[in-house]
Design a protein that fits this description.
The chain has helices spanning 8-29, 38-63, 65-96, 100-131, 135-152, 166-174, 198-222, 228-240, 242-249, 259-275, 284-304; strands at residues 187-190, 193-196. With 322 residues, it is mainly alpha-helical. It is built from 11 helices and 2 strands, in the order ααααααββααααα. A two-stranded antiparallel ribbon has the order 1-2. A hairpin with a 2-residue loop joins strand 1 and strand 2. Helix 4 (100-131) runs antiparallel to helix 8 (228-240) and helix 10 runs antiparallel to helix 11. It has one domain (36-304).
């Protein structure tokens, strides 16, 4: 059994907090389908970051600086890895031709499903680590492989070849679908039968991409902490701000073209830390500092050596006040 600071009361309280935040965000502030301007998206991203840091302060007050360092490192890693996933969202929206106002609706439901899927994966990962401690070395090797592959992929963006995607082809065979959008509806009735709209197909592909993304992010957070409560809370706070972060970065992703290299180096560092954990001990604050330094260096390199302008596929247009 892996020791955890999360008592049943804390787990229940955190879940209640997440439900309350989702009701406020998705049910009141953003219940209408619209395109956030860059300014508004940055504002909401700052709000979610502030809430995440406030929870980190609570962890520090309640459990000490070591647990707080683990939480902050997990949160930063999760946010940094989400950058690559946001670009996949852009490719999917462009491939399906999802209108910018409806992208908000896809991400709305995507967040809800991602929270449930992430919780299940974290619980499964915790159970595996508790039963087979050697699996951490497997996690580390997988992260090194993924980071190396990402680092060597090059500057060119991958095109979303949906017709060549096995999951998409299987989805089209299993789910009757129409090629036309019907407003904000995921399912409509055509010729007397119920069919899926491209919006539903896009949502399913977004969810599948998040599952693939979680295969990297969840093991990466296990590289800085084995406490399931810290892993879960850092993951969930990162996910809660994902929609705002998408609209904030959708039109700026090409300005930070070196971020992908920074994310790859983070995966290599965390994976190497996990593999070498038996012989080399790296402190919690040192891990956090290395992760932040790698990402900051990638941002600085992007600014110092800008890439040629490229229009991100599916990027929503600037809204009022952008």
């Amino acid at each position: 059994m892996i020791p955890t600071v999360g008592t049943p009361a804390l787990w229940a309280g955190f879940v209640a907090l997440v439900v309350a935040l989702l009701l406020l965000d998705l049910g009141i502030f953003h219940r209408r389908d619209r395109v956030l301007s860059v300014g508004a998206a940055l504002g909401w991203t700052a709000v979610w970051a502030a809430l995440s840091l406030a929870f980190g302060a609570f962890v520090w007050w309640r459990f000490g600086e070591d647990r707080a360092a683990e939480y902050l490192a997990g949160y930063v890693i999760e946010q940094s890895l989400s950058i690559d996933n946001l670009f996949v969202f852009l490719l999917l929206f462009g491939s399906f031709g999802v209108p910018p106002p409806l992208q908000h609706r896809v991400l709305h439901w995507g967040i809800l499903t991602a929270i449930v899927l992430r919780a299940a994966m974290i619980l499964a990962g915790t159970a595996l680590v508790a039963r087979f401690t050697w699996i951490l070395y497997g996690f580390g090797a997988f992260l090194i492989f993924t980071g190396g592959k990402l680092l060597l992929r090059g500057e060119e963006a991958e095109e979303a070849d949906l017709e060549g995607n096995r999951a998409f082809r299987l989805l089209r065979r299993l789910v009757p679908a129409t090629h036309r959008f019907h407003g904000r509806h995921f399912v409509v009735v055509e010729a007397g039968r119920r069919v899926a709209t491209p919006l539903l197909l896009c949502l399913v592909m977004v969810e599948l991409s998040d599952v693939v993304f979680a295969l990297d992010s969840v093991p990466a957070v296990f590289g800085v902490t084995l406490d399931p409560f810290i892993v879960f809370t850092s993951n969930i706070f990162a996910i809660l701000g994902l929609r705002s972060l998408f609209f904030a970065l959708a039109r700026m992703v090409d300005r930070f073209h070196r971020l992908e290299h920074g994310v790859a180096l983070v995966l290599l560092f965390v994976g190497g830390k996990m593999v070498a954990s038996r012989w080399v001990e790296i402190g919690r604050w040192t891990s956090l500092g290395v992760v932040v330094a790698l990402l900051a260096g990638a941002v600085a390199a992007s600014i110092a050596w800008p890439a040629a302008d490229r229009a991100g596929p599916g990027a929503p247009p600037a809204g009022p006040g952008a």
